[in-house]
Prior knowledge:
By secondary structure, the protein is α+β, with helices and mostly antiparallel strands.
Amino acid sequence: QMxxxxxxxxxxxxxxxxxxxxxxxxxxxxxxxxKHEYGPRDMVTIxxxxxxxxxxxxxxxxxxxxxxxxxxxAWSIECFGCELPPADKIGE
Length: 92
């Protein structure tokens, strides 16, 4: 359900808000940006350097999805001045 919400109403909403501001991005671009900014990450060491690597959304459990959507909603309020559409919009 949460995955359908993210890939449907939530990403559609964010894409439209970016358009209002004069920026056109695809849903995959927006998803990647949000995943990198607000998704869970793991520290990965490559040689002598450590970097944060975002986790695949397919590995999110329910709690990780809830936190992710909540963080994206808070960002939406700050960035666009409005909340994501309600989750009951799934399937519309």
